[in-house]
Amino acid sequence: MQSVALFGRQIARAFITSIQSEFRPNARPREPLHLVTGTAGFSKSLAKNQAFKKWTYGDDAYFIARNKVADVIGVADGVGGWRNYGIDPSAFPRSLMELCQRLVVENQFKLQAPANILEDGYCELLQQKTPLIGSSTACIVALHKEERTIYTANLGDSGFLVIRNGEVVHRSQEQQHYFNTPFQLAVAPASQEWQVLSDSPSMAQSTSYRVEEGDVILLGTDGLFDNLSEDMIVDYITRMKDKREENVQVQTTAKNIAEKAHQLSFDPDYLSPFALSALDAGIAMRGGKPDDITVILAKVSCQPQET
Amino acid sequence: MAALPATNAFTISASQAAGSTGDKGLMRTESLRNPNITVQFAKEVIDFSSQYGTETSISYTARNLAGGANIFPSYGDFTQACVFRTYGPWWKKAPSARKPFERTPKTFLSDDYIEITFATKVYPIKLDIYETYNPGAIVRILACDMNVGTDVDTGLSVCQWVTLWQGRPEESTRQSRIFSPPLKQCPFPTELLRLELCHDLAPYYTDLDCVQLHGTTEPVTNFSCVRLHSEQFYVKDGDGVNVMSTMTGALKDLSLEPNPKEFNTENQYVSKEIKQITREKDTGHEEIKNIKQTNNLDSVTYMQSDNGFFDLLPGEVIQIILSNMDLPGLCSMAQTCRLLRRHCCDSLQYIELNLQPHWTQVTDAVMYSLLKRCSHLQRLNLSWCKNPQLTINGVDAFMQFCGRELTCLYISTCKFVNNDCLMSVAQYCPNLRELDIDSCLQVDSTGFSQLKNLLQLQRLNLYRTYIDTMSLTAIIRSCPNLQHLNLGSCTCLHFMDDIADELGKNCRVMNGVYLVPDRFHDSKRKLKSLELWRSRSISHEGLLRIYTNCRDLEEIDLGWCTELKSRTSCFVELTQNCTKLKKLFLTANRTVCDEDLLAIAKHCKDMEQLDILGTREVSAFAAQRILENCKKLIMFDVSFCSGIDFPMMETWKKDFPHCEIKKSYQN
């Protein structure tokens, strides 16, 4: 029942969004936008002595990269199943994100197609001497500063939301083969090449959307979206109003969201979005879904004049 | 006319000197306190001779040298580094190795170079080179001045290179380091630097992280400017800079031809004499000539002038002595006296000509002055010659005059090489057997299709060129003697299987024509080495054509050929068919497995160099079988093979001391 209502709301929103974007007058060139970002996350494993690695939370990895024309953020969620083969599942998403970050910083990508960043990143992964094995979902959002437009690419069940005035105005679509098995980029060991699910980076869903100053972009892995409903997320973000010390606020909010998601993921009685979709798939379950959680919160704001 | 750039440079330094009146010591201390030191990382890599990575990639490519430090202070084999194509002596030991040139100066060691630009022009004070893996390969640092002006006669822009530092390669310390050799004062502000590397002592690939230049916008010590310029004209010590500078003077002087007329006629007479000898003796200028001819020549020499004891020496002896000198030495010698000049200008001294060490100096004028002496030239190396004053005109004239006997031409990474250049090569050098045009990026199919006229070709190096399938097919069809073919990093070869098919057919047809027992087979008529490094399109079908037809293959590089899969058993069959293999590179083929290694161990007893980097499918057991069975193995790269650990390596190093086992790492 709830899911039906959710679905209806989504359609209504999509409709409103399209109308909005169609009737938007052609904005005159204004000062470029940029992203104020904050990140937070939790590793599913509770072991405290885990070696902290830059840009990772458990098997999740993310990156934030900036160059002259764009600010790019991305997350990737490693598929944990590789652990059974004695392979570190976090290596693949981490390398993928690192390479994407380098591609952005070194201006080696076409902004209008962030799917290309994914594709190039994936190709670069194969160019490494280390035979890397694993798979991951990936989601990348690139803000073109001058055009005031975000270009996105999403493969799998990570995703993003664009929130404006307390409403979700744009979002990614989840891509799944079947329940709990998202689309994924993969490099399989030579002996099992044909047994492993591997989607081409070109299957990533790409969108573009004009953003305004004050919009908030939330990028997260499934650990977030499986445990926090959209309303709860929007709630957190609307509470973030004050304009002063933007970056501190963004960071705090990201941390709060991640903490809440983390807390709920271990709540056995909580009817999480994951439990709901499990029910839809005919699997009776309750409670949150313990998973690695990564949240990148990015507020679109006017570029500070760095003079 | 050609002496102009040097004069220009001198006037610059002279004016700088005029600007200074202070005490030299004082100036120096001032420079130390000078607050206007600009520190900058390289902005862009504009030219390089080779790179490990793919052209469009960001992994292991030369471009990575630009920008700040990504790796330092870590030590290891990282993707963010600038890596060159080769390391160590291994490529020089492979069957495809080229014969070294005679008369190469001992000071010239460079194997690779890379050129970088900086945002701000400065007088370099200090250069920090961040070496993050196997340091010690840098042997030379040069600075370029592109604003010298233009040559009045040719209208071509003049650029001047000055060596800021030169040294010998060092043994790797296996630690990352910042290399800041003491630089000589640069007489001009520069934004273009060049690093030259010698890989001889590198135990594995050398990785460079970044380059940081410290410099001032104003010249700091005028004293050193003057000193550097004076060195351009006088030899002070055996340093490479001075030799190079003297070389310019010498070559240019010759092009001016200040000699009296009668000397010229005599000179012609003598060289005619020697030509006769040549015809009889072919290229045997080092052999002892028969007495009659010696007497003949002697009498000529005697009649000519009074040269003291030198007149008593038979001409051939002088020739032999001269043959031990390097080119700058020969040019200096030519300035001593008429007798020696005549011998130094003899065409038999110019059978082989290696101008690569003198790449900064080679201009059209040099080519014009050399062409008169090079009528018997057989091997010419013009690689790296990129002086803007060297144009297609000079090279075309040279080829027209000296191309007839030329068998070997190396023109890699030359700016003047374009379609017209290959056209003139194809037209004037019918006997060419070796052609090296790697990294010549201005040639397209028009130029490459000219190469099919070179029917004698045995070696063709097309590394990092835009050769296309059509042109290459035509070349392979018309050159039945092809032995060595390098197609590494050729991005435009989209149908490598067709090429392989053509190579196979070419071999098979010859086997058909020469229906004679094996021992009568002309050994020159078989493909011996083939490099397909980073070919994305070669599949097991293509490889099948090669190994079923070219069974005498001694070297094949299949590194980064990702379409080859071990499960098609192409590698096993390759080793079964080509049992003479001495070098096999299967770099980064993730599918290479134990079965392949055991096949190599069983069939390829002559194997010397083997690379199976980056496969998870091999076990230490199979690798050990290779070490046990291939007794001639001298290099074995098992880097990033997860099945082989470092303790295992240590054991092997003790058990198989004759073989260098490589295992690279990232941290």
UniProtKB/TrEMBL annotation, chain A:
Keywords: Hydrolase, Magnesium, Manganese, Metal-binding, Protein phosphatase. Residues 43-300 form the PPM-type phosphatase domain. Its cofactor is Mn(2+); Mg(2+). PROSITE patterns: PPM_2. CDD domains: PP2Cc (cd00143). Gene3D superfamilies: PPM-type phosphatase domain (3.60.40.10). It is an enzyme of class 3 (hydrolase). It catalyses: O-phospho-L-threonyl-[protein] + H2O = L-threonyl-[protein] + phosphate; O-phospho-L-seryl-[protein] + H2O = L-seryl-[protein] + phosphate. Its EC number is 3.1.3.16. GO terms for cellular component: mitochondrion. GO terms for molecular function: metal ion binding; protein serine/threonine phosphatase activity. Belongs to the PP2C family. This is Protein phosphatase. It comes from Potamilus streckersoni.
Automatic annotation (TrEMBL), chain B:
GO terms for biological process: SCF-dependent proteasomal ubiquitin-dependent protein catabolic process. Pfam families: F-box-like. One of its GO terms (cellular component) is SCF ubiquitin ligase complex. Residues 311-347 form the F-box domain. InterPro entries: F-box-like_dom_sf, F-box_dom, Leu-rich_rpt_Cys-con_subtyp, LRR_dom_sf. Gene3D superfamilies: Ribonuclease Inhibitor. It comes from the Eukaryota. Keywords: Ubl conjugation pathway. This is F-box domain-containing protein. It comes from Potamilus streckersoni.
